[in-house]
Design brief:
There is one protein chain. The protein contains 19 helices and no strands. The protein is an all-alpha fold. The protein has one domain: MFS general substrate transporter like domains (Growth Hormone, Chain: A), CATH 1.20.1250.
C-alpha cells in the first residue's frame, strides 16, 4: 500500500506542477482576456470529462484482464512526451490545448482509476476506507511540495512553459518507480478473460448505466451521492481558484505558492488525523452528512467577499471532506456492495470514475462559463463558489436524507 500511496503522490505532483503555469500560459494564448481565459480553461477541462469516460471504461475493463501495473505507467510515460511538446510549442494554441486535454485524461486514468482498483485488490471494508483516507494524505503531500518547486522555476524563468520540463522529469521518475518497485496487485486467479474484455458491451463508454440497470437501489443512491460530491473535487475548481487568487485577491506567485503549500499541509493533517477520526466515530451516514454540511459552509464563505482572510478562513470547515474526501465512507461501502453484486473491481472503478469525469466535465464548463457571464454582467464572480457548494454538498445531502439506513449496506439486504 505504501508503494501505491507514493505512486499517488507522484501522480498528483504531475498535475500540480503546472497549477499556476497552465492558467498563465492559456492567458497568454487568449491575449490577456480573463473572460476568454476562463472559457478556454473550462471548455478544455469539460472535454477531459467527456472523452475520459471512453478511456476509463476501456482501460478499466482491460485492467481486470491484464492487471493494474502496466496501466499505472501509462500516464507518466505520456507526460514525458507531452511536457516536452508543450515546452517547445508553448505559443501554439493547436498544440497546447489538445495536449492539456489528453494529458489530463491519461494522468487521471493512471492515478485515480487504477489506484482505486489496486487498493480494492488488497483491501476491503473498513480497511479500504482507511486506505482511501491515507491516499488523501499522499495527495496532500503532493500539493504541499510541488508548488514550491513550480514557483521557484516560475519566478526565475518568468515563463510558464518551464514547468513542462519539470512535468517530463516527474513523468520519467514516476514511470521508473512503477516499473521497478510497484508490484502487481491483481492476482491471476482474480483476472477476467480476454474474451469478456473484447465484447462490444465491455467497451461501451456508458457502461456505468449498468449500475442503474442491474445494481441495487442502495448502490444507485450511493453512486449518485458520490458523483455529485465530485463537483467539489480540487481539479474541477483549480482553474477558478487560480483566477480568483490572481485577479480578485491580487496574490503574487509567491503568495499563491504559500497558500497551496499551507493548504496541502492542512490536507495531509486532515487525511491522517481528522478524516480517520470522523470515520471511526461516525456512521457512514453521519460522516457523509457532516462533511457535506462543512463543505457547504466553506464554499458559501469562500467567495462571499474579495477578501483574503475570508478565503483563508473558508478552508478550515472544508478540510474533513475536501477534494472528494466526503465520499470516503460511501466509497468503501459501494465498492464492497458492487463486488457482492457481481461487478468487477476494475470495471466498477472505471464506471464510478466515468461518472466522476462527467461530473467534472459539467462542473468545469458550468463554473467557467458562469464566471465569464458574471464578469460580463457585473454579478459577483464569488457566487460561482456558492453555486459549487449547492451542487456538490447541498444536493448530495438531500439524496442522503432520502436514503434508508438498510440501503447503506456492504451486502444486499434481503427484502429491502
Amino acid at each position: 500500500m505504501r508503494k501505491l500511496y507514493l505512486s499517488g503522490f507522484l501522480s498528483v505532483a504531475q498535475t500540480v506542477i503546472t497549477i499556476q503555469s497552465e492558467p498563465l500560459l492559456i492567458k497568454e494564448l487568449s491575449g490577456g482576456d480573463i473572460g476568454l481565459t476562463a472559457r478556454m480553461l473550462a471548455n478544455t477541462q469539460g472535454l477531459v470529462g467527456v472523452l475520459g469516460v471512453v478511456v476509463n471504461q476501456i482501460g478499466g475493463k482491460f485492467s481486470d484482464v491484464l492487471g493494474r501495473k502496466r496501466f499505472l505507467t501509462l500516464g507518466p510515460l505520456a507526460n514525458i512526451l507531452f511536457g516536452l511538446l508543450i515546452f517547445r510549442n508553448s505559443h501554439n494554441r493547436r498544440v497546447v490545448l489538445p495536449l492539456r486535454i489528453v494529458r489530463s485524461i491519461l494522468t487521471t486514468f493512471s492515478s485515480t482509476v487504477m489506484l482505486t482498483a489496486a487498493l480494492s485488490d488488497v483491501a476491503q471494508g473498513a480497511e479500504l476506507g482507511a486506505a482511501i483516507s491515507k491516499m488523501g494524505a499522499a495527495v496532500g503531500a503532493g500539493i504541499v511540495i510541488t508548488p514550491f518547486v513550480e514557483a521557484l522555476f516560475l519566478q526565475r524563468s518568468n515563463s510558464p512553459r518551464t514547468a513542462y520540463l519539470l512535468l517530463s522529469l516527474l513523468g520519467f521518475v514516476h514511470a521508473l518507480f512503477v516499473g521497478l518497485s510497484v508490484p502487481e496487485t491483481l492476482r491471476r486467479a482474480q483476472r477476467k478473460t480476454l474474451a469478456s474484455a473484447m465484447q462490444l458491451s465491455s467497451i461501451n463508454p456508458f457502461g456505468f448505466l449498468n449500475v442503474f440497470r442491474r445494481g441495487s437501489v442502495g448502490l444507485q443512491k450511493m453512486v449518485c451521492i458520490q458523483t455529485l460530491q465530485m463537483f467539489l473535487e480540487g481539479k474541477n475548481l483549480s482553474d477558478l481558484v487560480e483566477l480568483w487568487k490572481r485577479e480578485h485577491l491580487k496574490w503574487t506567485v509567491g503568495e499563491s505558492r504559500n497558500f497551496v503549500m499551507i493548504y496541502g499541509t492542512l490536507s495531509i493533517l486532515s487525511g491522517v488525523y481528522v478524516t480517520p477520526f470522523f470515520l471511526k466515530n461516525l456512521t457512514a451516514r453521519g460522516f457523509t452528512s457532516a462533511t457535506n454540511m462543512l463543505n457547504l459552509l466553506g464554499f458559501l464563505l469562500r467567495g462571499a467577499r474579495e477578501k483574503s482572510w475570508i478565503f483563508l478562513l473558508a478552508v478550515l470547515p472544508m478540510l474533513p471532506g475536501v477534494n472528494g474526501a466526503s465520499a470516503t465512507a460511501l466509497k468503501s461501502i459501494s465498492t464492497d456492495l458492487a463486488t457482492a453484486e457481481g461487478f468487477g473491481k476494475g470495471e466498477f472503478s472505471a464506471w464510478t470514475n466515468n461518472l466522476r469525469a462527467l461530473a467534472g466535465a459539467v462542473a468545469t464548463v458550468l463554473y467557467g462559463n458562469y464566471y465569464s457571464w458574471c464578469k460580463r454582467t457585473g454579478i459577483s464572480a464569488g457566487t460561482t463558489f456558492a453555486l459549487a457548494g449547492l451542487i456538490g454538498a447541498a444536493l448530495p445531502e438531500l439524496i442522503l436524507r432520502l436514503t434508508k439506513d438498510n440501503e447503506i449496506q456492504r451486502t444486499k439486504v434481503e427484502g429491502a
